[in-house]
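Forum > Structural Biology > Help requests

Title: Can anyone predict the 3D structure of Phosphoribosyltransferase?

Hi all, first post here. I have the sequence for Phosphoribosyltransferase but no way to get a structure on my laptop. I'd be grateful if someone could post the structure tokens.
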Amino acid sequence: MRVVLLRGSNEHGEGSSMPFGDRDEAGRRLAGRLAGYRTADAVVLGVPRGGVPVARRVAEALDAPLDVIVVRRLRVPDHPELGLGAVAEADVRIIDDEVVFRTGVGERDLAAAEERARAELAEQAARLRAARSRVDVAGRTAIVVDDGAATGTSTHAACRVAREQGASRVVLALPVAPPEALRRLAEVVDEIVCLETPLALPSIGEWYRDFDEVRDADVAALLGATPAPRTG
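Reply #1:
Sure, ran it for you. Structure tokens for Phosphoribosyltransferase below:
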């Protein structure tokens, strides 16, 4: 497993607390470091919602098809700020056993949370892709792109989806993530390219001057603006 850390940062960003103007800039900077992945079999997969504007710039630079991997967080009942884990396409499921233990969430509540998340996931995937078919990643290099990873739970699930769908190589590309999250993510990918690695990352938005909400309609528009996916 190869990890390419293109700029190690301390907790304060080596004097720069806002290294990215917005997701578009982050995507351009990340794309500039991914030129070596411009191959005929490359597929770029954005993690909705915020990862898709970043992924769009990477896909353009690599002349690769763009698709999404839809992930939904599992929340503790009555405490939505706490994450139990995540579910994703391809029946991927990640549970944070420590949170389950600390909160006392039972199997029934966990199953109910997963059922709701699965229904929301299916609806969101349909909205985002509209009439487009999912890009087949089997036997190809899947470049999974997010706008950052604080804990890495959703990004971890997305990378597992790419693997489950048969990608021959899974490359994770991130503008920013702390070392601890990268260590966990290294378990499910072949390579990681990360621009900024602060020791702590309470919020991804802290590393962007403009971190406006990305809507499903914005993601669908970005996907609709890409050329028809290559299937071979």
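The two ends are 26 Å apart (CA to CA). The chain is about 35% helix and 20% strand.
Shout if anything looks off.
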